[in-house]
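Allow me, if you will, to draw on your knowledge of protein folds for a short while. I have a record of one protein: its chain in single-letter code and its fold written as discrete structure tokens. I should value your view on which stretches of the chain appear to form regular backbone elements. Thank you for your consideration; the sequence and its tokens are set out here:
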Amino acid sequence: MANLKSLVKDTAIYGLSSIAARFINYLLVPIQTAKFNAAGGQYGIITNVYSYVALLIVILTYGMETTFFRFISKEGEDPKRIYATTLKLVGTTSLVFMALVLAFNQPLANLLGYADHPEYILVMYVTVAIDAFAAIPFAYLRYTHRPIKFATLKILNITFNIALNLLYLVVLPSFKLNPFGIYDTNFTLEVVWIFYINLFCTLLTLLMLWKELSGLRYRFDWAAGKRMLSYTFPLLIMGLAGQLNQCASQIIFPYAYDGSTEEARAQLGIYGACIKIAMIMVMITQAFRYAYEPFVFGKSKDKDNKDTYAKAMKYYIIFTLLAFLSVMGYMDILRHVVGRSYWDGLEIVPIVMAAEIMFGIFFNLSFWYKLTDRTIWGAYFSGIGAVVLIVMNIALIPYYSYWACAWAGFVSYAVSMVISYYFGQKYYPIAYPLKEIAFYVAVALVFFVAISASNQYLSTPLALALNTIIIFAFLAIIVKRDFPLDKIPVIGKRFKK
């Protein structure tokens, strides 16, 4: 129970920081979607380029975060050497990648559809290489249980990003100031400066990790390096396949869309803007992952580990369902996160959020093959999901535009989740409380239907009032069944009979 409390505490810190960071980051969406109209396609460019970045960060870290946690927790391994080895492996591959981008920038830009703007590719790909390297000292912060510094650096990065975006997109043009000569006479906004800002903030974050980079002073352990690479290769395949599920739609869309390049970028921009609202699920999943990964490996030798994993899964599902209903209930408010020219795409939000819930479940299920060193299974499951996603996107985007992207993600995660559960119960059985989980899912579905009807048929004030009652009803069910008030620390004594 003490270990579970530690997980809850770390998750709370990571979660609050992740929510705070994402909230700040959300401010970029209304600013950028207000300044870049949907029809112009600029936000579609941002969505497309960042999708490549998300895929590359997986390739350049190649599962070394998880591998780091696995090996640094093993008996007989020197933690300092493991850290140094991990840092130098990822650092070397990041440098090689940057050299290749510099050497082949124009051909890459031609291939990706940005022949006239090779600077997009150069700036963002250098940024992603630095981000990949920085992922290891961030993992070290998690290993040493320093969530405060981890959270602070993440929030500072985004804060600087939003501040500089505001300066470039709003402040300087409003006052007709051009101190750096970055605007033309009409103060035309260029997408490339959004990428330059990202690069600057990434470099600044890396500088603030200088203490953690001291691990470079330790000797590289060749034997450990070989073992780590052997362990991590299946994780790379799994991570690559998993990330394809996240970003393949945005990559494929410009090629599969049945229309002009400008129309494709406009439609992709709508999709990219609207899924930002659904990203609250990514926040929760990511926060849970940051705390759960070191927790799982650290608890792998405990006798009650399976019971703890089962409870963690149940609570994850409960609170993601609560988040789902909350977003749906306050959609009339949250839609203002994106510019009005993007509102046509808001109907895909519940589909994308449901998909993210299933991705989180898939992630929680993944530890059976990580703990048993059968990481190749994760590659199989994620690969199957990626194939489903890619096929559905190619087949359906020409007919259904970004709706195809939303449903492809949903089906892909569902398939990966189901097959991972099936084989997990075969090789590492865990008695998940399926009846209790099913109950919450059923109640959430009923409440979602009620909220949808409320949003459609009632005025905004009445809908918000009714939706609030529905959300609190779901919360009351949670409290009654699983979190009785008399058991809550500090305040619980007020409710004891």
Summary: Residues 222-256 form the longest helix (35 residues). The chain has one domain: 2-495. Residues 2-495 form one domain.
